[in-house]
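Need residues for this backbone.
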C-alpha cells in the first residue's frame, strides 16, 4: 500500500488487492489483502463486471476475446448478428477496445440502429466518463490507453488538478479532478482533433479557453 486516503471514514488502499475473505460460522470476519494485511469487516460489497460475459456469444460460435468482437458497424463474425455496449470489442484508432460507459452504450446502439435502417456510416466513438467519489468529481474525456507521456496541470481551485495524456505527441485524453474547465476544454480539443501547445498547457497562468482559439 503506497498511500491511504481518508475521506469521511473511508480508506482507499492503492497498489494492493484482495487475496481472500476470512470467516467463521457462515459469516465474514475479515479481508486478507495481497500484501498480507488483514482488515476486520462485518459486511462485504463485491463489484463485478470487469470480465465481459461473452459466454453465450462464444457458445454460439461468434468470435470473442473478453467481449464480442465487432467491426466498425457493430457486426459480429456472423454478419447477421450485431453487438453493442459494454460487451462489444470494437476497432478504434488502430486498437481493439471495450468502452464500459452509458454514453458508449447509447451512442453505439444509435449507430447500429441507423446501420440496420440502411446507413453505411461507421461508428466512431468519442469516449467520456465520470465518477463522483464523496467530495471528488472525476471527469474523463478521451481514452488514455497506450499513452507515452502525461502532463499534470493544477486547477484554479484548491484540490483541483488535471492529467493530460499524449501518444506520439498527439493529445488523446484528459482526467479532470474537481476541474470542470479542464474537462470541457479537453473534450472540445479532442472533438476538433487539436493537440494543445504543451508549453501553454503546462503554464498554470494560461487561460484554458485560449487553447481553443
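Answer:
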Amino acid at each position: 500500500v503506497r498511500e491511504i486516503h481518508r475521506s469521511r471514514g473511508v480508506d482507499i488502499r492503492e497498489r494492493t488487492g484482495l487475496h481472500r475473505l476470512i470467516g467463521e460460522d457462515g459469516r465474514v470476519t475479515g479481508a486478507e489483502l495481497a500484501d498480507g494485511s488483514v482488515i476486520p469487516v462485518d459486511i462485504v460489497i463485491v463489484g463485478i463486471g470487469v470480465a465481459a460475459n461473452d459466454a453465450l456469444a462464444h457458445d454460439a460460435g461468434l468470435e470473442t476475446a473478453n467481449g464480442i468482437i465487432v467491426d466498425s458497424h457493430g457486426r459480429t463474425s456472423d454478419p447477421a448478428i450485431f453487438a453493442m455496449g459494454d460487451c462489444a470489442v470494437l476497432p478504434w484508432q488502430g486498437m481493439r477496445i471495450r468502452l464500459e460507459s452509458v454514453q458508449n452504450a447509447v451512442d453505439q446502439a444509435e449507430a447500429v440502429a441507423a446501420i440496420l435502417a440502411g446507413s453505411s456510416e461507421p461508428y466512431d466513438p468519442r469516449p467520456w466518463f465520470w465518477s463522483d467519489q464523496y467530495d471528488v468529481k472525476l471527469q474523463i474525456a478521451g481514452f488514455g490507453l497506450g499513452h507515452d507521456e502525461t502532463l499534470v496541470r493544477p486547477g484554479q481551485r484548491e484540490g483541483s488538478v488535471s492529467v493530460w495524456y499524449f501518444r506520439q505527441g498527439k493529445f488523446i485524453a484528459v482526467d479532470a479532478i474537481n476541474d470542470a474547465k479542464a474537462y470541457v476544454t479537453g473534450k472540445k480539443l479532442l472533438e476538433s482533433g487539436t493537440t494543445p501547445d504543451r508549453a501553454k498547457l503546462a503554464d498554470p497562468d494560461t487561460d484554458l479557453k485560449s487553447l481553443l482559439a
